[in-house]
């Protein structure tokens, strides 16, 4: 298993020149790679990141999320579905240009939209159709899509891995699977290790994220049992830390980050990688 670090701890707009020193630090802290937001990046920056990461000896995965007011695969508005597909294709292209093979995120639905009820059949089918088309485009570029079920407070279409398995089976493409996230599982699953065992055949990416989004190992979401089940199911992909703090203003209200969760803003990375390495040893 490879250990990655999501740059969303520091920025939601990664820039090749501005964040070169940060990438060097991530390498020095003991990470195998990084995860970069690919949906708002231009092609030139994606290419530049690819060259920098290769030079540093860092691998890469990519992440994307959709704003429901602009782009939503599950919307009844065809314009929002078209925008979602266009955004996903841009993110997929950037993923390829960065030299990454996995684009992950809660791509089932645009975030920030709630209707007061659970998913309706037509919404589900719209999302399946949109992700199937995105998945076909991704396959042409050698990119896999890791769809992330997230908690009920952020999305209503797909909250559990069981629902995610049903979704990707309907999409029916070998390069479309699931992202298992410890934070969201901590909220939605009755038993996280069992849920991961049941979905094992479809898990192609993992986020290590604490219950409070802080330092992995400081709470109760990232337990030894998580690593035991990954070894048990033969998982051999990325374990990417996804943590947040007060450093990215655009994420504070969206993710309800009302306080810092560690003494130093880099602790989630520096201490988190040590926690993961300890359990992988």
From TrEMBL:
<dbReference type="InterPro" id="IPR050312">
    <property type="entry name" value="IolE/XylAMocC-like"/>
</dbReference>
<dbReference type="InterPro" id="IPR036237">
    <property type="entry name" value="Xyl_isomerase-like_sf"/>
</dbReference>
<protein>
    <submittedName>
        <fullName>Isomerase</fullName>
    </submittedName>
</protein>
<dbReference type="InterPro" id="IPR013022">
    <property type="entry name" value="Xyl_isomerase-like_TIM-brl"/>
</dbReference>
<dbReference type="GO" id="GO:0016853">
    <property type="term" value="F:isomerase activity"/>
</dbReference>
<dbReference type="Pfam" id="PF01261">
    <property type="entry name" value="AP_endonuc_2"/>
</dbReference>
<keyword id="KW-0413">Isomerase</keyword>
<feature type="domain" description="Xylose isomerase-like TIM barrel">
    <location>
        <begin position="24"/>
        <end position="278"/>
    </location>
</feature>
């Amino acid at each position: 298993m490879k250990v990655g670090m999501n740059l969303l701890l520091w920025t939601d707009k990664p820039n090749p020149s501005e964040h070169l020193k940060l990438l060097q630090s991530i390498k020095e802290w003991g990470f195998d790679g990084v995860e970069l937001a690919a949906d708002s990046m231009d092609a030139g920056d994606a290419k530049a990141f690819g060259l920098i990461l290769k030079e540093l000896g860092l691998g890469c995965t990519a992440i994307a999320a959709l704003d429901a007011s602009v782009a939503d695969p599950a919307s009844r508005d065809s314009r929002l579905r078209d925008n979602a597909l266009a955004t996903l294709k841009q993110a997929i292209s950037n993923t390829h240009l960065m030299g990454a093979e996995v684009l992950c995120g809660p791509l089932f639905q645009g975030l920030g939209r709630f209707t007061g009820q659970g998913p309706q059949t037509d919404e589900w089918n719209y999302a399946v159709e949109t992700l199937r088309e995105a998945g076909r485009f991704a396959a042409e570029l050698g990119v896999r899509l890791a769809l992330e079920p997230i908690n009920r407070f952020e999305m209503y279409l797909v909250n559990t891995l069981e629902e995610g398995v049903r979704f990707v089976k309907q999409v029916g493409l070998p390069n479309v699977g699931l992202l298992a996230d410890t934070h969201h599982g901590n909220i939605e699953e009755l038993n996280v290790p069992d849920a991961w065992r049941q979905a094992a055949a479809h898990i192609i990416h993992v986020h290590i994220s604490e219950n409070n989004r802080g330092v992995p190992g400081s709470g109760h979401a990232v337990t030894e049992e998580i690593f035991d089940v990954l070894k048990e199911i033969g998982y051999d992909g990325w374990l990417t830390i996804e943590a947040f703090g007060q450093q990215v203003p655009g994420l504070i209200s969206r993710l309800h980050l009302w306080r810092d969760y560690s003494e130093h803003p880099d602790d989630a990375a520096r201490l988190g990688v040590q926690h993961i390495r300890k359990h992988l040893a």
